[in-house]
Amino acid sequence: MTYQDIIYEIRGTAAWITINRPEKLNAFRALTCEELIHAIDRAGYDKSIAVIVLTGAGERAFCTGGDQSAHTSGGYDGRGTIGLPIEQLQSVIRDVPKPVIARVNGFAIGGGNVLVTCCDLAIAATSASFGQVGPRVGSVDPGFGTALLARIVGEKKAREMWFLCRRYSAEQALQMGLVNAVVPDVELDAEVERWCAQIEALSPTAIAIAKRSFNLDSESIRGISAMGMQALSLFYDTDESREGVQAFLEKRAPRFREPTKRP
Question: CA 28, CA 21: separation in Å to the nearest integer?
């Protein structure tokens, strides 16, 4: 497969997969997701690969979620319940028998924050920023982005992230357990490579079994996601959701509610 939206490279026994849309702050469209699924699956079952690193091109963003310019009425233009194969992308990260490390440089917002949530490990640069924005643009991740997030950062903090759409620093993400380590920007690659080297030295079968075991405890969330995505596909075809997308593209505050008429 020839990739357009991502870069696939091998560094020793690590496969580095980079979302290569820096002009869009590495927001993903349907093609990006398709390529990520292919690349992660390719690396996951390559016996010469010990670990997978997922990151974004440039210094500004790891990933900022779905590309709103590709979001039309009813969803995105591609396969998957909502026109983006998000369920398949999240599943392949969990299903491959190799650890997937999120190398977080810059913004990890919206769907980017969910990718960090789904990865097995996450190492962030000091400049990294995290948060959810779905309710601002008439969207939500009704599966791993909510239920798994709550298991990782706690129920109250996960609800705060979705209900208030605040931004969180790398240090705050570390304190809440969303990432494993925070290092200065200039040390990010070296730190990721150190973690990769430590994983390479360990039993791949033991790690694969451990990953399966961790996943089994939260596997019910996959069913929640499937049901939630069906509801989301219906939501995307409403005026409320369309207003969120249009407001984002027009760089204005959304008007989700009609002014209250009082007697």
Answer: 8
Rounded to whole angstroms, the Cα distance separating 196 from 174 reads 19
Token representation of residue 109:
């917002």
The pTM of this model reads: 0.92
Q: What is the pLDDT of residue 260?
A: 54
Torsion of CA 205, 206, 211, 217, to 10 degrees: 130
Q: How far apart, in Å, are the Cα atoms of 129 and each of 22, 88, 182, 187?
A: 16, 25, 11, 17
pLDDT at 263: 56
Residues of the chain with pLDDT under 50: none
48-84 CB burial, b ≥16 within 10 A, e <16: ebbbbbbbbbbeebbbbbbbbebbeebbbebebbbbb
How is residue 193 written in tokens?
């490579």
Task: Tell me what pLDDT residue 244 has.
Answer: 87
Rounded to whole angstroms, how far apart are CA atoms 180 and 13? 21
Architecture of domain 6-186+203-217: Alpha-Beta Complex (3.90)
In order of 29, 76, 191, 247, the CA distances from 68 in angstroms are 9, 9, 33, 10
Burial class (CB in 10 A: 0-12, 13-18, 19+), 227: exposed
